[in-house]
# Entry
Amino acid sequence: MTSETAVSALVLDTIPYRDKDFVVRLMTPEDGVFSAMAFGARGSRTRFPSGLDRLTIIEAVLSHKGSGMPVCKMANTRNVFWRLRRDLECSAVASMLSEMLLLVHMESEESKLLFEFATTAFEQLDQGLSPGSPAAALHLSLGVLRILGFLPATVACPACPEGHQAQSYHLRSDSGALYCRDHDRPGAHRIVLTPAAVRVLRHCLTAHDLRALAVISDDYLPGSALRVMENLLPWLERTLGGRLKSFSFLRSLYAQ
Ligand SMILES: [Zn+2]
# Structure
């Protein structure tokens, strides 16, 4: 029994397969990230006018048969993010975000939120709204972790009186919990966050899109954001369960 569905999907990756086919890694609000086979997509401009380029939003028809990989029968491009192809820095950040999305296993509710978050981020990167790409990468990484429930929604220590703001915090890299320096238990895996990093974190957790980066402060200078990112990277990779190769590209763009 074969069924067909029409979906809007984000193309996260396109892998050539045999002579004429592609395996595409798609993300939809309903089903999260999954693979689909596109037979003949490398030759057919009728069924695949856009050629299934990565980092585009497509309207696709998927055919499902049993429990196998769905087949992408045709696809039209709805959005192409041109700037992500021309601008190295934007493309580095976009690649990092798509790499993160390819690594996570998301529940259906998280898929909706992450799909919205990712498409908004790509649109905003495309419009040039990010003042520094390490800051944007940091913002997006923390946003993904927040949606997945690995980070609390606010920067606060659960053991401190409500509303109290500590100078420095420890991020527990086993649970993602935040404690002030005084209330953190010894022996735990922790990342010590400096006051500057805490300000960045607070900004990232409360502002849900990249427009927040338009408020440029010293904390958002590419160098500072890159340093915070470097500190968080091992934890980020452990949480996501894989290496983020695109980060080294971003680092090489900014390493002096
Ligand atoms: Zn505390």
Summary: The longest strand covers residues 2-17. Strands lie at 2-17, 21-28, 32-38, 56-65, 71-80, 169-172, 178-180, 190-193. The first helix runs from residue 82 to 86.
